[in-house]
User: What shape does this take?
Amino acid sequence: MPNHPSIKPLTAAEIATFPKRVVVPLEAPFTDARGAIQPLVDLTMESVVMISSNKGTVRANHFHHTDWHYCYVVKGRIEYHHRRHGESGAPEVVVVEEGELFFTPPLVDHAMVFLEDTVFLTLSRNSRVQEAYEADVERIELVKPR
Assistant: This one.
C-alpha cells in the first residue's frame, strides 16, 4: 500500500461507485441557445490534467494502488490496453474515440497507444504532485513501445 500523507485508503463505498465498463456512457448535455454543457464526472478528485500525445507513442504502462482516473478524449483516438493486476495473458484492448470517456480503477495494469495525435483530460482521485504520484504508481511493460 502506498505511503504518502495525501493518499487516502480506498473504501468499499468508493469501489461500489466504479463504472462496470471501460467506456463510460455520458449523460445528455445541457443545451440552450448559448450552446451545450457536457457533464463528465461528478465526484471528489484531486487532479485534472490535459495530456497531448503524438501518434504511435505509448503512455501509462503501469498500475495504481489506490488511484483511479477517468479520461476524456478531446481530440484523437486511443488504443487502451488493460487487465487486472496479477493476471497473465493478453490484455483486453478497447479503442476509445474522440468525445468518449473511459475509466481505469486501481490495481488494473493499463497502457495507451495513440492511433493519431491525441489530446485527453485525465480526472484523478489522487494528487498528481510528483511525490504522491510516484508513491502510488508501479511501472510495468504491458505494451512494448512501438
Remarks:
- Residues 83 and 91 are 5 Å apart (CA to CA).
- The chain has one domain: 12-139.
- The longest helix spans residues 130-136.
